Amino acid sequence: MSKAPRLRQALRTPMGIATAILSALILLVAIFGPMLAGDTADRIDTDAIGRHSGTEHLFGTDALGRDIAARVVVATRLTLELTLFATLIAVLGGLILGVLPAVLGRRAGRLITATVNLLVAFPGLLFVLFLAVIFGVGTFSAAFAIGLGAAPATARLVQNLTAAVAGTDYVAAARILGVGRFRIIVRHILPNIAEPVALFVAQVAAGILVAFSGLSFLGLGVQAPDYDWGRLLNEQLDRVMVDPMSAVGPGAAIVLTGITFGLIGEVVAGASGGRGANRPEAEPVASIDEQPTAEAESALLHVDHLRVRFPGHTAVHDVCLSVTEGEAVGIVGESGSGKSLTALAAAGLVPHPGRVSARTLRFADRDLNRQAPKGTSLAMVFQDPMASLNPALTVGRQLAEVAEVHHGAGRAAALARAVARLGAVGIINPEQRVSKRPHEFSGGMRQRVMIAMGLMGEPRLIIADEPTTALDVTVQAQVLALLRDVRDESGAALLLISHDIAVVSQVCDRVVVMYAGRIVEELPVGDLADGVAHPYSAALIGAVPTMTTDRDVPLATIPGRPPEPGEESVGCPFAPRCARASDRCRTEEPVLERIGPGRRVACWDPITTAVHELEEVR
Ligand SMILES: Nc1ncnc2c1ncn2[C@@H]1O[C@H](COP(=O)(O)OP(=O)(O)OP(=O)(O)O)[C@@H](O)[C@H]1O
Questions:
Q1: What's the pLDDT tens digit per position in 206-262?
Q2: In DSSP terms, which residues pair with 507 in a beta bridge?
Q3: Which one of 19, 235, 351, 395 counts the least CB within 10 Å of its CB?
Q4: Smallest Cα–Cα separation from 48: which of 37, 38, 59, 62?
């Protein structure tokens, strides 16, 4: 879904409707208020001096007999103008200070970062008062002071976001390709930080409104004869004890507008997917003529022509993959081959700014292009359980939360289930261990905890992304055995991602080999022994040492390197590293063809016995 429909959807929620109404109301008052209520607001009436609030004057009259309610209405425009002006200064200042460290050299960048940190640590109000005094007392100098006062916090956010985006592979790729720093900032960094910055700006605007009103209230902001809501509050200071309603008008206006700014931020956050799971956009691929097979139709997970794109490069190219009920499928390939992104797309977890498109992306009868996977039917086990477990919570609490949230279990029942699941994954003394925090577990135990967390529901598919990479060989074998047992007992299907074809062959029924974001071969594990068809699969197998490997000879490696993100290849992407590559391989990309039951390969010159089958099929 593109941004406009998501915004429309967010505006249809009760919060969206309230935000739209409040924003429209404030805008209308700001535009038409001075025209409609200007005369009443400025009319001095010596007979009506200091009138209390009532039916004639909603908030009473001031020391010159002017109607306070009318003055609140008229003050809306100036208050908003000044707030927006100061916000603009905060944003411009924040953006400039925020991206400068990425543009300047290391030393100058560090100096700016340190200055920003210092300014953020300095008490905000003192800083603004200091600037207000330097610029002199006056409306626009106060706006400058407040804008500059809010700039360091904005700059800190921009710096952090810029640093995060600057560390991504696509920025690295752009650098390698010689793209200049300014271009990287404008093309790659700013568009990717725009959304969180926009959300922050809404909060900054609310803060600036309150700060400006505070300055005017202190007499350092708007000066007579002009007036904003802060100044109106100041004028009623000596009457507030006698007639509190005289201060309610400007006070309520400040609070209501501040809340509206906050709500605008919430609605933008809702529309951008800034809260909770960052579901990517999914667009159907336009023209693909193949019809889904009956096998694909009945699959538990069916992915058809899946593409995952990041700004500047496509990471997953037209991947077609199915996992049937109870089946274990392994995805193997070198780092960067797109294994994780394929699995993350199936779980609806591709990180921003990734964009997912697929002709079909279906899990358990749910169209993942439109809906998230249902409840706990899909479990994820990640490579780094320390990063996936909350260090501040006991593992029992984290596991129990799944049962409480998804199954409506009571606290005690949820904890009992957590204990049972920890026991089931081989944690000794689960009753005691349940009250420990993640750092009190070893790496292998934490991985077991992650698997137990997946089992808190009734998963139909467990996606395990390199679950054993960080573990030593013995623990690795235990975790693999556990995944096998879990699968046997729960009947769940398994999608196991690994760079190690040996690991996959121990646990899975079927192997999918990926290279440069494409599936290059797929075969039943049993066929591995007869030989694979794709030279890349053969090279992966060749790189795995066995008990008979000659220790005097260096281990086999695959020459060359996989393509960098964004590096477009012509022909077969593996051709530059393939000893069998012909001219055709270098000019024409092979398509993934079925070469037998459960076997597919994308190669113009496949190896082994599979070739005969291929010829028969052709
Ligand atoms: N958040 C991201 N932003 C930009 N590019 C990304 C992002 N995540 C992954 N990529 C790129 O997508 C490609 C595939 O990544 P993916 O993580 O799927 O590879 P992988 O095969 O799982 O490798 P690894 O085993 O190292 O995790 C890589 O080239 C990577 O640089």
A1: 999 998 888 888 888 888 888 999 999 888 877 777 788 888 888 999 999 999 998
A2: none
A3: 351
A4: 62
User: What mean pLDDT do residues 389-411 have?
Assistant: 79
| Rounded-to-integer distance, Cα 85 and Cα 114, Å | 27
- Alpha carbon 332 to its chain centroid, in Å, reads 26
Counting atoms of ligand 1 from 1, which one is nearest the CA of 169?
31
More confident residue, 478 or 270: 478
pLDDT of the residue at 617: 45
Amino acid at 248: V
Q: Which amino acid is at 233?
A: L
Do strands 366-367 and 378-381 pair parallel, antiparallel, or not at all (unpaired)? unpaired
Distance in Å, CA 482 to ligand 1 centroid: 27
170, 340, 352, 495, best to mutate for ligand 1 pocket (most atoms within 8 Å of CB): 340
In SS3 terms, 57-122 reads as CCCCECCCCCEHHHHHHHHHHHHHHHHHHHHHHHHHHHHHHHHHHHHCCHHHHHHHHHHHHHHHHC
Q: Which candidate, 129, 170, 121, places its Cα nearest to that of 146?
A: 129
Q: What is the pLDDT of residue 285?
A: 38
**CB count in 10 Å sphere of residue 314:** 17
Q: What is the pLDDT of residue 30?
A: 93
Atom of ligand 1 nearest to the CA of 497: 22
Q: Tell me the HSE value of 587 on the side-chain side, using a 13 A CA sphere.
A: 3
Q: Which domains does the chain have, with CATH numbers?
A: 3-272 (1.10.3720.10), 294-377+458-557 (3.40.50.300)
Query: Pairing between strand 510-515 and 518-524?
Result: antiparallel
Reported residue count of the chain is: 618
**Dihedrals phi, psi of 331, to nearest 5 degrees:** -110, 125
> Rounded CA gap, 549 and 554, in Å?
10
Helix (H) or strand (E) holding 522: strand 518-524
Query: Is-contact 82 75, C-beta < 8 A?
Result: no
Who's near 130: CB < 8 A, 6+ residues apart?
none
pLDDT for position 276: 36
What is the separation of C-alpha 590 from the centre of its chain, rounded to a whole number of angstroms? Answer: 34
pLDDT of residue 397: 84
Cα distance between residue 316 and residue 394, in whole Å: 37
Cβ neighbours of residue 56 under 8 Å, at least 6 residues apart?
none
* pLDDT category of residue 555 using cuts at 50, 70 and 90: low
Pairing of the two strands 518-524 and 599-601: antiparallel
| Mean of per-residue pLDDT scores for the chain | 82
Beta bridge partners of 322: 302
Contact indicator for 264, 198 with CB cutoff of 8 Å:
no
- The residue contributing the CA closest to ligand 1 atom 30 is 336
Q: Beta strand pairing status for 355-357 and 328-332?
A: unpaired
**What CA–CA distance (Å, rounded) separates 85 from 71?**
21
* Ligand 1: nearest atom to the Cα of 351: 1
